[in-house]
Amino acid sequence: MEKNKKILNRELSWLAFNYRVLQEAKDATVPLLERIQFMAIFSSNLDEYFKVHVATLKRLIQLKKSTRQKLAQDPNEELDHVLAEVARQQEELGETFRNRILPALRAEKIYLLDEKTIRPEQEAFIRDYFTHKVQPLLQPVLLTPEQNFFFLKDQVLYLLIELTKANQPPATAILEVPTKKHGGRFVKLPTQNNEHYVLFLDDVIRFDLPQLFPEYDTATAYAVKISRDAELDIEEEVSENLLSKIIRSLKKRETGYPSRLLYDSETPTSLLNIICRLIGITNEELVIGSRYHNFRDFFGFPDFNLSHLKYPPQPTLPHPKLHGRKNLLAAIYHQDFLLHYPYQSFDYVLQFLNEAAADPAVTAVSATLYRVADKSEVAKALVKAAKNGKRVTVVVEVKARFDEESNINWARKLEKAGATVIVGLPGYKVHCKLCLVTRQEKNSLVNYAYLSTGNFNEKTSRIYADHGLFTSDVRLTKEVESVFQFLLDRNPNKQFRYLLVAPFNMRQKFVQLINKEIKNARKGLPAYLILKMNSLQDEAMILKLYEASAAGVRIDLIVRGICCLNPGIKGLSENIHVRSIVDRYLEHSRIYIFGNSGNEKMYIASADWMTRNLSRRVEVGFPLFDGALRQEVRHLIELQLQDNTKARTIQNTYLRTKNATETRSQFDTYSYLQTLYQEAETAQEVTK
């Protein structure tokens, strides 16, 4: 970490977060198959990082020198630091795989073979498998000296093959490893004596190269993979249709500028020179890898039905007060309900939407969709509502990176069903997670709202830790209605008293709340902040936290990812403590707690403290008015502040305490919520 520096480097901070993911792959206390999943997450994260962040640094390098000099840091110098750290982490990933994961697999009688360790009795099966299942999917291309171009697809694994024949110069071929068409990267072999065998698909191909190139004496394959610039160039102008721009940019993504060529360190220089010439890549884009790339394919590693090598099941818990309710709207009319994912079921959100779609008294449904599941039940419910004659308004954020295509497809389906579809907002990403249902009741219209920190995505709700609030409190629903009105009319003259809404009042309100703690501290009154977020990067907010620390405000930060604040520096941040939790689930919620002279204020939000969230996105934070719900969230936050198992400093040092009672916040959260449900069930039985 950069010692005594006020603002830490964002890129290196992100890489530090990804290293915490790699730590989970290295941790022998994590079940083996889960460690393999963390390897896949690490690799997937790094792929995206190169496609976006490294590609952006390379764009900055291409700017005029006079323009580059205005940047906070020289992009050439920054890129050097980034690539050095990536190389270190890649080397550690390889070491973890070879020296930790593979021996642990062998101890469980799971053998990941390669083409040289295949047993004689397995050869017939592999050759037959290759002939019938793999070879029909292969399209090898012989590269000739006359060729001056060859296109490599983004993030696709290729084998670069050196071919030799007596009395002839060596030849070169290339083929795509057909992972998607094959249905995964791994080939399971027949189990023998309770021993499990598996091969990389690329090793099946390596083993059968003589069958693929019978006219050559030898054929040796080396893996290569390219990462291309995935940052979309979108000029968000009102004058042109945004949707058509996104579609055009998506077409460019597959042919984006190369940001990295990952290659096997054993690849002969002559072979590497050939492929570099054909794809137009320089030494600056070359990154040394190992024999195997695309470790994200380990998401599909077979589990052989060995449940003891995975985390014990944690079935989603029913909500203590919503379980069994056939009419959610009626329940929400009388009180607020808070859901905690993935511990509790996302099905209540689907029930809420489907009830609204079917209820004759419901007149309108509005929702913001940022990332939805491929076969989204949320979007289907909104389609159903539109077809049932409701006035449906859906804001579909078509600039949600890597989900643009899916979101565009749903936007078209919703429009076809009769919904009013808003495809984003010029100049802003719509990142808030809101739904508003309007119902005719007696002589008036009543609004029901759902506000969340997480996406309307039933798939990610099983692995992302988020919170969602159902409410009919007019203080909130009226202002949710104003947010949707802004998204429709784009009139910026909206006033919000209770909600924190970026880009309107969110930043200003956070500053006001911090200033109050500063004043209290200077008066000698108790003053504290407890802030949980995914990323902390905004310089103005960091400087404000430094000011609060200097005034004596105690600040506890729980930051999963990027943290550009430097804690514990005397005279700057000595009252600031930062922890990061990486565990079974992805910590995704944002919770902001302010001491407020003993009358604690608590907000739950969709926004991190990044400049883009506070200034260039539509975000919403909402207060919890219900005392019992505030107490519930406060307990969950305390569990995270006490975590001594999966909590780490931003320097990636575990906060484990010898001989202390183990506190693992995610497991303890599940137990706590399970107890709440069991107590509610017991109370109901007693009432009966």
Protein model, in words:
This is Polyphosphate kinase. ATP binds at residues 45, 464, 560, 588. GO terms for molecular function: ATP binding; metal ion binding; polyphosphate kinase activity. Keywords: ATP-binding, Kinase, Magnesium, Metal-binding, Nucleotide-binding, Phosphoprotein, Transferase. Catalyzes the reversible transfer of the terminal phosphate of ATP to form a long-chain polyphosphate (polyP). The protein is globular. α13 packs parallel to α14. Helix content is 39%, strand content 22%. The model is unreliable at 232-240 (pLDDT under 50). Strands 14, 18, 19, 20, 21, 23, 24, 25 and 26 form a nine-stranded mixed β-sheet that branches. Strands 10, 11, 12, 13, 15, 16, 17 and 22 form an eight-stranded mixed β-sheet that branches. β12 (391-396), α14 (404-417) and β13 (420-422) form a beta-alpha-beta unit. The chain has three domains: 10-309, 2-Layer Sandwich (polyphosphate kinase like), CATH 3.30.1840; 336-493, Endonuclease Chain A (Endonuclease, Chain A, 2-Layer Sandwich), CATH 3.30.870.10; 501-687, Endonuclease, Chain A (2-Layer Sandwich). It contains 20 helices and 26 strands. It has 688 residues and is of the alpha/beta class.
